[in-house]
Amino acid sequence: MEAITSRVGRGQVLLADGAIGSLLMARGLPRGAAPESLNLSHPETLEEIARLYLDAGAEIIQTNTFGASPLKLANYGLADQTAAINENAVRAVRRAVGERAYVSASCGPSGKILQPYGDTEAEKMFESFQTQMQALIGAGADIICVETMSDVSEAQLAIQAARSVSPSIPVMATMTFEATARGFFTIMGVTIEKACRVLEKAGADLIGSNCGNGSLQMVAIAKEFRKFTGLPLLIQANAGVPELRAGQVHYPETPEYMAEMSRDLIRTGVAVIGGCCGTTPEHIRAMGKVVDEEMQKRHGLPVD
Amino acid sequence: MEILKQIAQCLEVGDDAVVPPLVRQALAEGIVPKTILDEGLIAGMNTVGEKFRVHDIFLPDVLLAAKAMYAGMDVLKPLLISAGVSSRGRVVIGSVQGDLHDIGKNLVGIVLKGAGFEVIDLGNDVAAEKFVAAAKSQDACVIGMSALLTTTMPVMKEVVDLLKKENLDGRIKTIIGGAPVSQNYAGEIGADAYGYDCAQAVAGVKKLAAAVL
Lengths: 304, 213
Description:
The complex is a heterodimer. Helices cover about 45% and strands about 15% of the residues of chain A. By secondary structure, chain A is an alpha/beta fold. The mean pLDDT of chain A is about 95. By secondary structure, chain B is α/β, with parallel strands linked by helices. Helix content of chain B is about 60%, strand content about 10%. Chain B has a five-stranded parallel sheet, sandwiched between helices. Chains A and B meet through loops of A and α4 of B.
């Protein structure tokens, strides 16, 4: 398979998948359990979800390893199973997609805060990410996706950990921003300008934002990224901000709405588009149509 | 009292090296520990909570301020105990689901401790049954719950319902907070109080505890 980095370098826009957690819960993941515990007990569920997104047209399929660094797994007493949890997740997606899609290995925050603000040493956090990366890369992931980061130093450590295991594996990195009266910041106070500078220097191949925001804010975030980096961008919006309706959680953005917003993202220069919380295979399918239309326009072909 | 303002300001910028000597200086000036606590440390922490809420400052600033608060508390604690400032009661707190964003809950916990409550922090991802079981076994008078995601708010209602079912709603009161939560939501689910920010949450807990004990 041609590497993702090479394809986006040729001006292609790639479709990534949507939310996993909500689909896991719908398939019986108990509340309070580590979502990654299913990697040991029910790898067939991971395959099933990967196939749903593959069928919806996604070319980049995430592994269920968001919280699978040993520091994070320790909260559930699963740190000693780090290797199996990560390897199983990569292999499950590979079995489902073969070579028809890229296996994107998710790596979320450790849940710890680095010194001097928190009590975790940088070295300890690096080692934790490195242990996870060894398993992910060893099991054959095509790309690493460091995601939902708030602390840019933590993101940097995760990227460096991936690079320490494989100097050549492509790495994507996203952070989660909040809109404030003074612009976009992560909860740790990181601006988009700073995120661009640090993530780029750490060696990420694609950078961008996921979670925390609906599509409209994500267009603004993508434009801000474009100001500060020449790297290809990756955006995964939530299906809006969730509301409670009669006690049920409801994400307001429809597949059609998110698809139309994807057009704006593509025109802003976003190279990888997917979904985060609240998005479904239907959202991804609708976004995929827009990706195809925009690609045909970009290459001067008639839109059918 | 200039020194109390100074303590609050140094706490706000997270200067944990300067807060303890200032607290000692205030004591030397004859200010009683309770006043130093309320008008110095807690006043400063309340400002930090408010600034965090409006995105004037971010998590690192809050964490440093909390360290400074604890440094000041270390000086005051033995004096408060020997002065016979007794516990105002026990409070169980937790996030119904959380990540880094559980700082709001942590802030409330810090200030509650400062205000003389015994705080049992159950951490994140706390299920309804766990809140109630902890409150029962610890003989707590208030359960404080924080939600940062709309998706997890229903757990708050489960706690309220569970207390009613076990006929505990008379002696264990509930207060809720967090970004997606509102006074309306508190009313809707039958929670006893809502805290918009840290200061309001602490005031709410005081009122509830006073009513029960």
